[in-house]
Each structure stands twice: as C-alpha cells, then as structure tokens.
Design a protein that fits this description.
The chain has 311 residues and is of the alpha/beta class. 47% of the residues lie in helices and 12% in strands. α1 crosses α2 and α3 packs parallel to α4.
Amino acid sequence: MSSSREPLSAGVWGVLATPLSADGSAVDTESLARQVQHYARIGATGLTVLGVFGEAARLTPDERRTVVETVVAADPQLPLVVGVSALETDAACAEADNVLDLVDGRLAGLMVQVASPDPAELARQLTTVADRTGQGIVVQDYPIMSGVSIAARDLVDAVRRVHAVTAVKSESSPSPPAVAELVAGVEVPVFGGLGGTCLLDELAVGAAGAMTGFSVPEGLLACVAAYRSGGFGAARDVWRDYLPLVNFEFQQGIALGLRKHSLVLRGLIRHDAVRPPARAIPPRILELLAEHLRSTPGDVLEGAAASGREG
C-alpha cells in the first residue's frame, strides 16, 4: 500500500455529501459520481470523502466501501482525503483498513478526529493510526461533532510531535483565532471548515484554503482565488455575495438537509434524504433556500443542472 505524507496542496478540498435513495436506505452512486465530476469540472484541489457532511458515521462498512469505490471511479485524478469517524484508535484503524485498498495512489491523508485534549495522548493516538495504516494524517479539530475540546496551543504541541501529519482542519469556534495560532505554530497547511462561515478571516490569518461542504463550492473557489490574486479586499468583494447562503445553510440540526436539498435544486443529486437523527425542514424554509440560490452569483441552478446532464 503506497503512502503519501506530503503536505496537502493549498486550495479548496471539496467535502462530498453522500447521496441516498429517496427512502434513505441505499447510497445513490450515480448522484455521487455526478457530484464528483462537478467538483473536477470547476477546479477543486481535491476531495474529502466520508467526512461529517458525508454522513460517514451513519453508513455501514459496506456502504463506506461503496462510497469510496464510486468516488475513485468517477474521477481518475483528484487526490483524496478519507475521513475516519471513530475516536478510539483500534476502531479508527479498522475504518481506515476497510477502504484503503480502494485508494492506493490517490490518498493524500486519512482525516482523523482529535480524540483527546491532552497533547501527549493525542500525539500517541495519531502516531499509532499513522503507523498501523501506513498513511499520512489530516487532523480534524471539530469539538461540536467529536465532543473533545482541545486548546489551540495543545493542538500545536500534538501536531509538532507527529511527523505523519499532512494538514490540520480547524473547526473549533471561533475559528479565526484558532487558525491563526495553528498557522504560527505548525509547519503543515491549516484549512478552515464550518461551512465557510469564517473563510475570509481564516484566509487573512494564514489558512491554506477551505475544506468544507458548502453546496455552492464555486464560491469557495472564487474567494480563495481572489485572495491569492488580490488579497483581502478582492476576496471580500467576491465572498460577500455568497455569505447570505453560507449563513442560511449553516443552521444547527438542519444544515445537512439544507445542503442536500440545495444539491437537488442544482441538479447534482436526485434526493435530499438524510439519515436519522436528522430533523424535518419546514416547506417555507426550503422555499427560502431556493430564493437564496437564485440570488447567488452565476447560474448555480441552471449551470449545475446542465453540467449534470452532460456528465
């Protein structure tokens, strides 16, 4: 099994949703492939599969293999970050081993959750996963999902002890101070998440880009490109037109359902089914989502639908 421990490339790593059948019982592989091809078409740096947005914790091991196999087949080039949901080391390694044979030569890193607030213990966990799988590690700090909160200085300490780390995904709110401290303290790229809610400020304090599941990733790409070419002012001018939708999508408890419905409206997936414990979204809120999409720059409805038909 080949391994890459090179730092992740800067840019936008799209986080894939896992499309499901209308009743939520099976992975919709055709829709997943269409989503992958759209990311490739618009110029994503790479893809993140089996993340929180991909509902990985709600998939069976066989479904996880189906997801990874579909993503690998849908595009032959984009590098992949593969998420691991389990916090316990043995379970995390088992999750990784379940899919590693499918991504040989394509894997940029396993995304592993922060599982301890103690930097020495976290470093031991990350080192063990890296050694047992033979892979580089993208460290995900997302306390709302993991239930584990770690101080930024302690995360810096842990990351500096683990030579296999290829990037950090910082999703500890407020994220700009955390990203700033991480960027100053570690030698690997730091990416923001949280639906892009703080993307502009994360870039301003040194983030290498975005790794998140916003349903209009064209906006993430435009913002990052504008920051690279024109700095804060140029990126702000681009990003402010996407912010109403970014803010609308990032509603606790219904964010995933909103994003999936947005992908349906865009013609990228067929159904917006989300597995329990997802909450039902009132019809008026779904209507409002469509209004936000119609007000977003570009032809995000018509253009995506057309590209989906072509793919």
